[in-house]
Structure formats: C-alpha cells, structure tokens
Specification:
single chain; 230 residues; 7 helices; 55% helix
Length: 230
Amino acid sequence: MSGSTEWFDSVGPETIQRMVDSKNLRDGFARFMLNYQFAMDEIMTKINILKTEFEHLHDYSPIEHVSARLKSPESLLAKARRRDLPLSFETLSGNVLDVAGVRIVCSFISDAYWVAKMITSQPDITVVAVKDYIADPKPNGYKSLHIIVKVPIFLSESVQNIHVELQIRTVAMDFWASLEHKIYYKYDKEVPAELLEELKEAAGVADRLDSTMERIHNEVHTDASGSAER
C-alpha cells in the first residue's frame, strides 16, 4: 500500500489529470455506445414480436430474418473524421445516424413497405429520414429501403431518444448487396469496370426475380373474389 502511495505522490498533477480525463472519456464513450445498444435491442424486440405474431397467428409472415449491428468505436470515429465533425458525443449523436443498424429481410417488395409501415406507425417511433432505394436505386443497382428512426430508451435517471437505421429489403436484394460488399472488400473498393457492369446486370436480374416471385405469390394467394390475401 505504501508503495502505491509513494508512486501516486511522485506523479505530477498534470499526469494525474490526463489519467482522469482518459478514464472519463472511456467511461463516457462506453455509456454513449451502450445507449445505441439499448436502442437497437428495443427495435429488435419490436420486430421479433411482429415476426413471432405472424408465425404463430397468421398463415404468412412478411419477415424472413432480422440482423443487427453496432458500429465499432473505430468505425464511428473514422466516419466522424471523414466528415470533419468535432469529436463530441453531442455532435456524433446528432450527425452520425447509423451507429446502430437493423436489417430486415422480407420475401417480397410489397412486404418491405408493409413491414416499414408496421414499425414506423408505432406511437413511440419517430421517423427522421427515409431513403427509398427500392423505388430509386443507386447507380450501381443497389436497392433497399433505408429509414432513420428515433426510439426512446428509459434509463434509471433519464429518457434518451436514440437514432437507429433500418434497412429493409428482399432476399434477392440482400443477396446482391452481400455479394457487392464482398467484392468491394476483396478489391479494396477499386473494383474492375467489367465486374461493376456485371454487378449492375445482376441487380437487374434480381429485380426481375423479385417481380416474378411476387406475381406468382399474389396469384397463389388470390381468393375467389379476386382480391389478394395476406
């Protein structure tokens, strides 16, 4: 004990302050990231309730599977630097809106919009922004419905409204996006032009597959009166 006291006495006040500041920063960052984990868990609970309800109480579920991811601190800080953002928790929370992400994969295009409506119409969900890359794909062929929402998390001493990004897409869109990600990773984002062209053609194939499968699905599930059933 006396040894540790002697060490403490030998350390200058500036060094001690840097250590305290560093610990405070680590603790603050841990709390910051934990809020996003809580918000992501909240959204996942909402989606899994819907998924379980449809699986047990209805003949058909629009949700195939769900996944979630939290940006790593390194990825978050790198994005802030690329955008030249001040490194404060307030700035990060207000400007980096995809710290927490949830991906919902559906069977059909209409399901993607249906699921989006079910989630965003819940009274404690606030829609912040919508980017509809299904109706308006990216130039490379990427298609998905991106929605930024705010969800409240109830902590011991406060309520925080935290951003979560929802990505809602079909199985075919998800397969294409997964392949594109792997190709960009392999080539370190310098993808040969011929591969980019093939990827764009594959996006068109995936789109035609989505349309064909949804048409077949609707034909099979059309009742005698001619209206499609869910």
